[in-house]
Amino acid sequence: MARKNLMAGNWKMNASHLDAIQMVQKLSYRLDPADYERVDVVVCPPFTALRSVQTVIEADHLEIHLGAQNCHWEESGAFTGEVSPTMLAKLGVRFVIVGHSERRQLFGEDDAVVARKLRAVLDRSMTPILAVGESLEQRDRGETDSVIGGQARIALRGLDPDTVASLVVAYEPIWAIGTGRTADPDIASEAAATIRSVAEESYGAEAATAMRVLYGGSVNPGNIAGFMAKREIDGALVGGASLDPDQFASIVRYWV
């Protein structure tokens, strides 16, 4: 079975709950039923907007999936300011981003923490979007494969092949996030192939082939078609452009 493409909008620390309601409604107006047949569409608002977006999705019977940008690995406890995966699951969240480079760089999350979060998301029957990526310095030293391969290997360790097959992994080179620079489609495709090879080592070709691999890093309507032309790439994790419903709809409808 062919992998279904996925476009996820990471709104980061933007949009009040009122803004979020308008954004998801406007996005839905710009998409047709045929679009959802080809692409899983995900929006990841900030925590304060999740309930509002959930309500719109359910009330209007939208085929847009709700995603979260992060979570803690514990179900509950004395973790001031954190949100548990159980809380997200109760809100109808389907996807959770784990290991985004901003979490790794700004908040000190290492591979072990990312792995714990990934398992917590899976335990609540949600799908992790595992983000991996290298810095410009690491790329210049020729360490791209070892860095992203190592991040993926630690995160996936101990999972079964069926679980690996259901995962989403986003290759997000740190040097391309929010900078206006993008990895060209060949670079992104090579990185996606590396990620699949890591999965194949321990879980087999079938799981590696079924796993969806996205590209993220200054994605916009003008460059998305080039990435989607690559067989190894199944979609995108979109930052700034996902805040504009017109731009995000154009990215979702990359073939038009």
Protein architecture, described:
It is a single chain. With 256 residues, the protein is an alpha/beta fold. The protein has one domain: Aldolase class I (TIM Barrel), CATH 3.20.20.70. Helix content is 46%, strand content 15%.
Count of DSSP helices?
13
Gap from first CA to last CA: 23 Å
Mean pLDDT metric? 96
The coarse overall form would be globular
What is CATH's topology name? TIM Barrel
Compute the number of structural domains.
1
Number of strands: 8
Tell me the helix content: 40-55%
Give the spatial strand order of the biggest sheet. 1-2-3-4-5-6-7-8
Q: Which residues sit in consecutive blocks of at least 5 with pLDDT less than 50?
A: none
Helices and strands, in order, run as EHHEHEHEHHEHHHEHHEHEH
Structural class: alpha/beta
What composes the largest sheet? 8 strands, parallel, barrel
Rg estimate, integer Å: 17 Å
CATH C-level class: Alpha Beta
CATH superfamily: Aldolase class I
Can you name the CATH architecture? Alpha-Beta Barrel
How large is the share of residues in beta strands? 15-25%
Compact summary:
This protein is α/β, with parallel strands linked by helices. 46% of the residues lie in helices and 15% in strands.
Secondary structure blueprint with pairings:
Elements: E1 5-10, H1 17-29, H2 33-38, E2 39-44, H3 50-59, E3 65-68, H4 85-90, E4 95-98, H5 101-107, H6 111-123, E5 127-132, H7 136-140, H8 144-156, H9 161-166, E6 168-171, H10 185-203, H11 205-210, E7 212-216, H12 224-228, E8 235-238, H13 245-252
Parallel strand pairs: 1-2, 1-8, 2-3, 3-4, 4-5, 5-6, 6-7, 7-8
Helix pairs in contact: 1-3, 1-13, 6-8, 8-10
